[in-house]
Amino acid sequence: MKRIITLLIIISASCSKPSNEFRFQDTSLTFEDRVDDLVGRMTLEEKVSQMMNASPAIERLGIPQYNWWSEGLHGVARAGLATVYPQAIGLGATWDEPMMFDVANAIGDEARAKHHDFVKHNKRFLYQGLTLWSPNINIFRDPRWGRGQETYGEDPYLTGRLAVQFVKGLQGDDPKYFKTIATVKHFAVHSGPEPERHVFDAQVDEKDFRDTYLSQFEMGVKEGKAYSVMCAYNRINGEACCGSDHLLTKILREEWGFNGYIVSDCDAIVDIYKGHKITQTPEEAAALAVKSGCDLECGKVYDALKKAVADKIISEEEINTAVKRLFMARFKLGMFDPDNEVRYAQIPYSTVDSKEHRELALDAARKSIVLLKNDKSTLPLKKDIGTIAVIGPNSDQWLMLLGNYNGVPADPITPLRGIREKVSSKTKVLYAQGSPLADGMPLFETVSADVLSYNGKPGLLVEYFNDHEIGGKQPLYSETSTALDANWKNKAPREDLDDDNFGVRWTGEITPKETGVYQVGIISTCNTKLFMGDTIIAKTVYHFRDEYGDPRLRKSAPIKLEAGKSYKFKVEAGETFADAQVQLVWDLLGKDEITKLKKEAVETAKKSDVVVMFMGLTARLEGEEMDVAIEGFRGGDRTSIDLPKVQQDLIKEIHKLGKPVVLVLLNGSALAINWESKNIPAIVEAWYPGQAAGQAIADVLFGDYNPGGKLPVTFYKSADDLPAFEDYRMKGRTYRFFEGEPLYPFGYGLSYTSFSYKDLKVDGMKVSVNVTNTGKSDGDEVVQVYASGTLAAFKRVHLKAGESTTVDLEMKNLKPGDYSISVGGGQPRYAQNLTTSK
């Protein structure tokens, strides 16, 4: 790894651009002329090298290296400090198109600013570019899919409208240059199961294919003008998505007029011959993908294209087509023009984590919150209440707030902190964890300073090295630290260290206070080893897979530790790129620990006037292709949509006390909270709300913000109410085709105020209606238009108490036909909507 990174640094630093030596450097020419000139000068080997995400420099032409892989799902991801907005499913719950544009615009600004700062320091690594592999606009067709949190929900129209705004915000409005390039993914018919995604064949008929799985992509491409599309891992009706001429050329390019470039999901070309077994060799797989229209590979199979040309499986002219598309993108990003000619190159680094962006993250988090239940006006709570008990495994976990594909915020606010900062000085706030997230899933806590020592004295020895490979080298300097909980984001511990090439070693003893079986682990974005004595018991190798969330968590096998006995340990971390975080964590395993946690929570609740419980899931349980196999969860997906049993038991135990209970859910997918819905008076859905989570939740709980979010997915009563997860037919799933009774329907969400509708008018595709806030609180209403039961238009509006307004909407995506038009604050089946025929 050291040799590779050193080589890349030397190359990028040595690629000084020749002064107008070549025609393609003439900025007075069209991009088309410049691209033709550049590609015409390249050898076949050089062309092929540019068709993989880690594209090397071409020194003789002055072309710097470029890594096409960067992320911006809900903030610039995996590149250090960034503003972190609610996870995508939370953004979907806002139902707010203008806000979605603002969020994407801010993400694009930060990506630009960070990219130019990286380049200024000769850094062009993974996650440091301008081609963002976001948004994920697959349909969240089944709540068991672990990656559904990355989408905007189950409805194609809602997803498409939000995608259009997100793409426009990322790409900007300059007539010549893109700010960044948005990549709509994963094209197409892709939503689990995660463990089988490399071999899975999604069977779907033409109606579901067009109406559900393609329509939001069509909107993103034709209206949003997304310049990049990522093809999916799976097959569709036998064809690999990244090797389908029908999908990538006939539909995307010829039918929709797409003129950008297509990138494969990571190692999806490997799947063509290894997983799907459509071809026999890498050469055949690479040729099939390029011929079908996949221009860029995330991976290295395309290196086989050189042999494929020699074997006459593909022509160099076909490769030219792909390479020209890729360089057109780079020219449109202004990568070969002087910065003073590129409007977006002027964005200052101060925009990263700026005051305006922090305020936007708070606004988005507030708008994402959905009030599911509020019996007897339990909410809002009073700020001067005597004692509040904050209980639950998600009460004080900042990593949980971020979901996946996230950046690192400067100051994430947990729910516990948000409540403590909200209430009056006279209010006492008590806290108890209460339970782990799930049986078999330890809830790791930072190893506290009071059990750490070095040579019999409190603290640890910390040694710093000017190389990520520590080996037997001498440290540059050393110091002592009270705990092992470091987060340098994308910086270094000191200015005289290279922030992408340094090492740190912590040495000391750990002395547990209780005897028991523990798991000791490290949360780290570095290449890290944890030693107990001389034995490595856990290690991380920074990689793109978020098997335990990002940063990566690695844990030991269960080990028995005795109270009062000291155990020597050592942690060595080598930083090579992106974020730099290392944290020593542990968990005491066993039923005794669960019983103890529950008892502590009950005793805490008994002392309170009201209990607020923060329960739900985490990106360590649901997500992309994860190594998780415990009850209710499998490989990133869920096998049950219930709350984990250990959480259910805790909620019921607290409820027995007769105290007022507020349940706040933090999760990325729908939960079947049947008992809770019947017995808990107030329930709030907060998703993974991002960096401002605690403040936003507290604003809602204590009435400083009136919740107005609506569900972007159906909350079912049981997974048994759904077809098999692997069945891609839409019959029986999502609000459009589900015939049962949901727990909470798509489009649902309560408010602290009330709204009425009158004077519905329909004129062709245009709809207008008068909406009045009939309550005593200012608030937001999401006006929803349904055409024969399917969402056709929506708009989020803010109304002061007693205020009325006429809301004008347009049904943009209806096919010719006769419809019953219904307008209200939810689906006509569950809300008092106005209805007319059209």
Structure in words:
- With 838 residues, the chain is of the alpha+beta class.
- Helices cover 25% and strands 23% of the residues.
- Strands 14, 15, 16, 17, 19, 21, 22 and 25 form an 8-stranded antiparallel sheet that branches.
- Helix 2 packs across helix 12 (316-332).
- The longest helix has 24 residues, at 97-120.
- The protein is globular, with a radius of gyration of 27 Å.
- Mean pLDDT is 93; it is low at 1-18 and 543-552.
Largest sheet: 8 strands, antiparallel
Rg of Cα set: 27 Å
What low-confidence regions span 5 or more consecutive residues with pLDDT below 50? 1-18, 543-552
Number of helices: 19
Helix-residue proportion: 25-40%
> Which class best fits the helix and strand makeup?
alpha+beta
**Beta fraction:** 15-25%
Distance between the termini: 65 Å
Summed up, what is this model?
This protein has 838 residues and is of the alpha+beta class. Helices cover 25% and strands 23% of the residues.
